[in-house]
Amino acid sequence: MHELSIVASVVDSVTESLAAYPGARVKEVRLRVGVLASVIEDSLHFCYGIAIEGTRLEGSKLVIQILPVIARCDHCNADVELAGLQSFRCPRCGEPVNDLRQGRELDIDSIEIEDAEETVTP
Predict the structure, then answer these.
(1) Same-domain check for residues 81 and 41
(2) What SS3 string covers 7-46?
(3) Contact (Cβ atoms closer than 8 angstroms) between residue 31 and residue 109
(4) Per-position pLDDT tens, the chain of length 122
(5) What is the pTM of this model?
(6) Are residues 62 and 46 in the same domain?
(7) What is the DSSP letter of 95?
(8) Which residues contact 111 (CB under 8 A, 6 or more apart)?
(9) How many other C-beta atoms can be found within 10 angstroms of the C-beta atom of residue 60?
């Protein structure tokens, strides 16, 4: 299960970013994950819950945006979304495509934080 090491790296990166915001609380961590990244979304959520225990991210939510495979079809001269992963052929003309433009990503898209002052109740 490599999802745990991926999530551990995400938690480390977010924790490093929080150094600029002392006292801030993380509300959400948003990831962009391509379908070719070979990760299981449910496993990422499960591992995230484990990895954030006892950290400044505890209580935060992981939001994952799954990105489809987009490839460049030289024949159609267009970027096309592949319908499935079994065939890397253009859905318009049926020609093979090999110039992948999207689908391998595994990035932190954004982090939503709440300032310490905002969490204080009278």
Answers:
(1) no
(2) HHHHHHHHHHHHHHCCCCEEEEEEEEEEHHHCCCHHHHHH
(3) yes
(4) 589 999 999 999 999 999 998 889 999 999 999 999 999 999 999 999 999 999 999 999 999 999 999 999 999 999 999 988 888 999 999 999 989 999 999 999 999 999 865 543 33
(5) 0.84
(6) yes
(7) -
(8) 14, 17, 26, 28, 29, 30
(9) 21
CATH of the domain at 121: 3.30.2320.50
Q: Which amino acid is at 43?
A: S
Instruction: Tell whether 92 and 108 lie within a shared domain.
Output: no
Structural domain including 44 reads: 1-68+103-122
How far CA 61 is from CA of 58, 84, 112, in Å, comes to 9, 29, 10
> What's the structural domain count of the chain?
2
